[in-house]
Specification:
CBS-domain; three-stranded mixed beta sheet; alpha/beta
């Protein structure tokens, strides 16, 4: 029983504190409205669903409504076949077993280990029908840093930042994203200022989802749109000294996947939802 009413509301000993207490089941934070696809639908249909619902991945089921895994935006970007009848069955990735009873911290660890931003929640280990969907944002809304979590953006950011310019072609940046497995790149002006972000979702929504010699519109990479036509603005930036709690608030408030870190006008780093999630997990015992 916690008797000290003056305790820091965010941390207690070295355990992550959820808003509901020291342990929270996934059933309390997951969404029950799930957009999913059957494994026999076409990749084109899955891509359209991702565009329409602004999703980074879709659960895949079989004809018995059993969850098979996920197809992600990275999978969509990697598909180069020109055939219109290609189904998602060949691109499904297995998912960790997350049920409504799974602890939030355990689910966070499973998702981080699997490098997933979204994961389906199944009814039980024996009943693999989909009961909900869980995102890293859902988890971030319900946990806080521990005593030993990194304190600032500078502590969790990646310093080696790949960037692009407004004049780069979509096909070129798409190819780079696949090669380096990045979900988003800061867009720089001619004066080397951060002016926006281009993400996998921006590319998928633009309709240019091929990286081979010709794209889906039959044009060559040089003829594809420039990044300035599809990038997301404004640029959401923080300083290296910005507390990670503020970074979490910004990512959740603006529903964005990443923040650029700027010091005296210079781009010095980038951080994303999973970076913040890992920071909160330090000291959790997971």
């Amino acid at each position: 029983m916690m008797k000290d009413t003056t305790i820091d509301p965010y941390v207690f000993e070295d355990h992550v504190l959820s808003k509901g207490g020291f342990s929270m089941q996934i059933s309390k934070v997951m969404s029950k409205e799930v957009v999913y696809v059957n494994d026999n639908v076409t990749v084109t249909h899955a891509r359209q669903l991702m565009r329409d619902h602004f999703l980074r991945g879709l659960p895949v089921i079989d004809n018995s409504e059993r969850m098979l895994g996920m197809i992600t935006d990275q999978d969509i970007l990697n598909i180069t076949s020109t055939r219109s009848d290609v189904t998602v069955s060949g691109y499904v990735h297995e998912c960790p077993m997350i049920t409504p009873e799974t602890d939030v911290l355990e689910a966070a660890k499973l998702m981080l280990d699997a490098k997933l931003e979204r994961a389906p929640v199944i009814a039980s280990v024996d009943d693999r029908r989909i009961a909900g969907i869980l995102s890293n944002a859902d988890i971030l809304r319900n946990i806080h840093p521990t005593k030993i979590s990194p304190a600032t953006a500078g502590d969790v950011m990646t310093s080696d930042v790949r960037t692009c310019s407004t004049s780069d072609s979509v096909a070129t940046i798409w190819s780079s994203m696949i090669t380096i497995d990045y979900t988003g790149l800061p867009v720089m002006s001619e004066d080397e200022e951060v002016i926006g972000m281009v993400t996998r979702q921006d590319i998928i929504r633009s309709g240019f989802t091929r990286t081979s010699i010709n794209d889906t519109h039959g044009t060559t990479p040089a003829d594809t749109p420039k990044i300035e036509k599809i990038m997301s603005t404004p640029a959401y930036t923080v300083s290296p000294d910005t507390p990670i709690t503020k970074c979490m608030d910004m990512i959740l408030q603006y529903d964005i996947g990443r923040l650029t870190v700027v010091d005296n006008g210079d781009l010095v780093g980038i951080l994303n939802r999973n970076d913040l999630l890992r920071a909160c997990m330090l000291g959790s015992g997971k």
